[in-house]
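CORE FACILITY INTAKE
Project code: CF-77B
Contact: R.S. (postdoc)
Sample description: multi-component assembly, two entities in total
Requested service: structural model of the whole complex
Turnaround: standard
Below are the sequence entries exactly as provided by the requester. Do not edit them.
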Amino acid sequence: MLSWALAADDELEIGAMDLDICGPSLPKMLGCEKETLHESNLGWSPVYVADNLGMMSIQFMLPDEDAAVIWRGQKKSALIKQFLKDVDWGKLDYLVIDTPPGTTDEHLSVSTYLKETGIDGALLVTTPQEVALLDVRKEVDFCRKAGIKILGLVENMSGFVCPNCGGKSRIFKPTTGGGEQLSKDLGIKFLGSVPLDPRIGKSCDSGQCFLDQYPDSPASDAILDVVDALRDEIEGEATI
Amino acid sequence: MLSWALAADDELEIGAMDLDICGPSLPKMLGCEKETLHESNLGWSPVYVADNLGMMSIQFMLPDEDAAVIWRGQKKSALIKQFLKDVDWGKLDYLVIDTPPGTTDEHLSVSTYLKETGIDGALLVTTPQEVALLDVRKEVDFCRKAGIKILGLVENMSGFVCPNCGGKSRIFKPTTGGGEQLSKDLGIKFLGSVPLDPRIGKSCDSGQCFLDQYPDSPASDAILDVVDALRDEIEGEATI
């Protein structure tokens, strides 16, 4: 979703890298899960879902869509290294890296390999439940220990508007104030909340761009606001 | 939730083991995240949340609730071995093992270590979205390759009843028929669907038993039906 939103700006070149080796979902969401990889003498070419949006995922290497990748950490780390080294990304303005939840091999590898080129920072995404916030607290601790700047926190699935009566209900009730309160507690920037819209899930399932399909929905507004806040955060940093 | 439901039968001894080393949430959900471990000459004692429900999680070993466990796969595997070998579980009727999503170190280790004692099987949980079903297909492939019997599939967050108007809406619309259709396609047993009830999240966040708090809710009925179907599946197997 972030990749689509960044790619909406034609002048930017975006790369999206799916590090969820054992459960890749980015290709499905970007509507390119049937693609396979092409190799040139410059290395693997990313799969282009738009003129300025290329992506890479292990999904493209699987013989069959449902096949499981049963790999331990070391093997996953080796593949991540290849994704960074052997893929012909071209010149990119942004490389969006989607990691699985947690603080393990994938996170350690990517932060180590990218240490030299530099990472702008990490965008943390949560849902309002206390059990999800618990994981975010651990990820904050990880970023701080690994020296990765935290760009901010986004709260997803923040509220639900009933299509029958228009009444708003909070499906996942934040017992302790949700993402916004957590950001305050931990001293990180709160970039906004995205409401739960059943059409987002539908767009993801069919691999279409929700922002193009429903440009006037409150969720689209919220997503674009988050992306603006994020770009400010990254570019503000770059000009200093 | 499954552990609570099984433990509702006083005559059973239940153990719950949280294998999500980098994002343990079971202690929070069972309301015991502040506990620490005790060691006797028989090994570590599980933390008892009810007379017949003991549990084990790395959370109990952390110096502070928000600390991240930044470990690669090998270290996680070593801890999982200790959880099985060095914990004084006593005599158990059921050991419920909660794994993180995916098909990696945790899954390989636990299936290897338990090969000799035997695993009754795996209960797969999904939500209705196509991207979640994709992961389940991979887990089915894993279980088949690892020789683990699949007890069945449960669909969670299946529908939402608006508290204002009582209208039922499907928040996560299953574009391809959801969990039930997938079960048919893959030849596995469909054990039932649990509707999305905001109070479930609230109970999990506060560490209370949803089944005790709202025994008459449709979600509680659904959960107990799933557990009955699951016990039939396991015990039916045992008597053959």
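Facility notes:
- The longest strand of chain B covers residues 150-155.
- Residues 115 and 148 of chain B are 9 Å apart (CA to CA).
Invoice: internal transfer
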